[in-house]
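Postdoc handover notes: sequence design on the structure in folder B. Input tokens:
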């Protein structure tokens, strides 16, 4: 067993001095005073890892990302959504090779891990090479050491690049095959993800929902990100709004994890809460693409569980969940003119424990029985100061002021993956070389 000790540990909602976290293989065995742990497990602790002047918190959970989009950051910036999609995503992604897909995922996962992300859900739809494309993303996650949920996209809109599109039978079979291949791998999970009402037919969406019920997972789907999706739905389905229509085909339930949910009525939001759906919220991406502002206070009031996502790095353009904690709170304050509508406790939960709930994984908390995924943060970093003896500024500073320079160590599945700010399992030079190689080929 390993004993991780820091000056302060976040545990059961509080911050405790001289606490340690005892890890057995990939799981947290005990959390208590260091002296107590040493006495209780005398002779069984094989290694003690000490982080002085640091606070240990749960690793963050990125519930929505598109890894390949990290290769497109800075391309097509400041464009309307559909123009951005056509001139950035569609233009470049259709020519990506397996190596490009791998390098994009490696880049995305490495960057977010240095920002304190220990689990990521990659909503992935580049199936130019069938399931080999998915395997490239999975391999990248393993090479970095991040915990991966692959939301394998089910996409059958004929207006998309050819590599995105599969038949309903192909999409379901490929997703099912990957699910069973990795079902015993604690570091990789597979879930179905019919893309959206504008990129998946109703039959494809129903197939994704059916598959989620069969496999015992959630299904992920973009919902009402842009006004055009709502208008198209009303025109095609006798005036029904998006959630009304999706409910009419019986796919709104506890298996649904919708992404964005910007243009929803209060009645639709109440229905989501009643049916047990959950939300992946990406505030920075919604701002960057001028999507609009999701009504988060109404979602919370309705009982919708909310996690935070970075979305793709070409629509954010950062990929830090700590950043999204800050953004969800200040954006909602600006939207509602209510300083108390979202607080730092809620923001922190959205980026950690709620993410674990959304992805059905035992992560997002430093707690006995949970996976050993956590982060240490330098208390002497300017962005974490000032700090009084009562530690009342600790969580506000983590949510509102902390900069990436403060993140020193990252542990995933009981293994150190970032040490003193540097990646452990792969070199940053190798990551950057892969990105440069792809960029060189894009612009020949």
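Designed sequence:
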């Amino acid at each position: 067993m390993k004993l991780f000790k820091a000056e302060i540990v976040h545990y059961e909602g509080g911050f405790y001095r001289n606490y340690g976290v005892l890890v057995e293989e990939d799981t947290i065995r005990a959390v208590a005073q260091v002296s107590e742990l040493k006495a209780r497990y005398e002779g069984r602790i094989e290694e003690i890892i000490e982080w002085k002047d640091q606070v240990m918190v749960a690793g963050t959970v990125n519930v929505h990302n598109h890894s390949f989009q990290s290769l497109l950051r800075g391309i097509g910036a400041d464009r309307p959504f559909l123009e951005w999609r056509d001139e950035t995503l569609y233009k470049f992604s259709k020519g990506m090779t397996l190596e490009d897909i791998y390098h994009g995922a490696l880049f995305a996962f490495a960057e977010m891990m240095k920002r304190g992300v220990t689990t990521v859900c990659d909503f992935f739809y580049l199936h130019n090479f069938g399931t080999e494309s998915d395997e490239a993303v999975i391999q990248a996650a393993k090479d970095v050491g991040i915990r991966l949920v692959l939301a394998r996209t089910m996409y059958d809109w004929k207006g998309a690049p050819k590599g995105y599109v599969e038949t309903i039978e192909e999409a379901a079979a490929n997703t099912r095959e990957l699910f069973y291949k990795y079902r015993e791998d604690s570091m990789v999970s597979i879930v179905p993800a019919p893309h959206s009402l504008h990129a998946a037919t109703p039959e494809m969406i129903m197939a994704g929902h059916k598959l989620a019920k069969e496999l015992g997972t959630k299904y992920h789907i973009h919902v009402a990100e842009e006004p055009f999706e709502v208008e198209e739905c009303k025109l095609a389905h006798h005036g029904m709004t998006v959630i009304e229509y999706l409910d009419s085909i019986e796919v709104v339930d506890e298996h649904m994890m919708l992404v964005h949910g910007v243009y929803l009525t209060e009645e639709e939001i109440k229905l989501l809460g009643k049916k047990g759906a959950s939300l992946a919220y990406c505030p920075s991406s919604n701002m960057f693409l001028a999507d609009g502002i999701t009504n988060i206070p109404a979602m919370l009031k309705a009982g919708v569980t909310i996690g935070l996502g970075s979305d793709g790095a070409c629509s954010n353009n950062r990929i830090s969940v700590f950043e999204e904690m800050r953004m969800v709170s200040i954006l909602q304050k600006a939207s509602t003119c209510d300083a108390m509508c979202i607080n730092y406790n809620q923001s922190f939960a959205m980026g950690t424990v709620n993410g674990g709930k959304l992805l059905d994984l035992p992560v997002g908390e430093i707690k006995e029985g949970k996976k050993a995924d956590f982060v240490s943060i330098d208390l002497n970093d300017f962005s974490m100061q000032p700090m009084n003896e009562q530690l009342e500024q600790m969580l506000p500073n983590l949510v509102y002021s902390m900069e990436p320079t403060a993140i020193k160590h990252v542990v995933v599945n009981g293994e150190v993956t970032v040490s003193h700010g540097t990646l452990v399992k792969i070199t940053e030079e190798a990551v950057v070389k892969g990105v440069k190689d792809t960029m060189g080929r894009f612009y020949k």
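Context for whoever picks this up: Residues 98-114 form the longest helix (17 residues). Don't rerun without checking with the PI first.
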